[in-house]
Specification:
alpha/beta; 8 helices; 36% helix; globular; 6-stranded parallel beta sheet
């Protein structure tokens, strides 16, 4: 499923022609918003709060994983029943406590200066992701936004990444994907994109980014302000 369009030239500054990012745990530290959501649900039920340290490792795993941390005694069916409430509460406070990870703003500025187009492919529901983008002032800068419910498949399936490349008018192989979860790297590899594992993001102690198959592992966003930190695209 590759586009026949001619790929754009590699930037004179050495950055990839295009970059796609995961959102939560990669660009945005949304864990404080998620914590406020979970603790509001607990308070409603007369229960004490959980800590950020307990919730942070599973934020990239989605609402069900976060609900399982907040309500470990519940079975899967009961946890699934709480997902709509979690999403509704989260929508009501989205962005109030979240912030960009240190170094993200400078990295995006560097990409813009290099003429590198960038966009977002997240498993967060699209309507929620679209609430965040204007808060960050990215309406014009972000060239494409695909959420977990935009298409028939979500990551780790490659379809969202391939669709994002198509909407940006680029060959998938000219793009690099950046994410903090194994499914991000699996999706990138399946889409024929080079990948960066964002080690500053959310992951469990048992997760081993070295085993994910990423082209590059990067410790801090500020490192990606420099062209030499980026992997070569699969297609030039």
């Amino acid at each position: 499923m590759r586009s026949s369009r001619t790929p754009p030239p590699v930037s004179e500054l050495g950055f990839p022609p295009a970059v796609l990012f995961d959102l939560d745990g990669t660009l945005l530290d949304s864990a404080p918003d998620m914590l406020a959501t979970a603790n509001a649900m607990l308070a409603e039920r007369g229960r004490g709060p959980i800590t950020l340290g307990a919730l942070r490792p599973v934020v990239s795993k989605g609402s069900r994983a976060m609900i399982s941390v907040a309500f470990p005694e519940l079975g899967q069916v009961e946890r699934d029943a709480l997902v709509p409430e979690f999403l509704e509460r989260y929508e009501g406070l989205i962005g109030q406590h979240a912030a960009l990870f240190d170094g993200i703003a400078g990295m995006l500025d560097a990409l813009d200066a290099a003429g590198c187009a960038w966009g977002i492919v997240t498993n967060k529901p699209e309507y929620l992701a679209r609430l965040i983008v204007p808060q960050l002032g990215w309406e014009q800068r972000c060239k494409v936004l695909i959420g977990g419910d935009t298409l028939a498949q979500r990551k780790p399936h490659p379809l969202p990444l391939l669709a994002a490349a198509e909407r940006m008018g680029i060959v998938p192989g000219t793009c690099v994907y950046v994410g903090d979860d194994e499914r991000d790297i699996v999706a990138a590899n399946a889409a024929g994109m080079a990948s960066v594992a964002a080690l500053w993001g959310y992951r469990l102690d048992a997760d081993d980014p070295m085993a994910w198959g990423a082209d590059t592992l990067v410790d801090l966003p500020e490192h990606l302000q420099h062209a030499k930190a980026w992997p070569l695209p699969r297609t030039l």
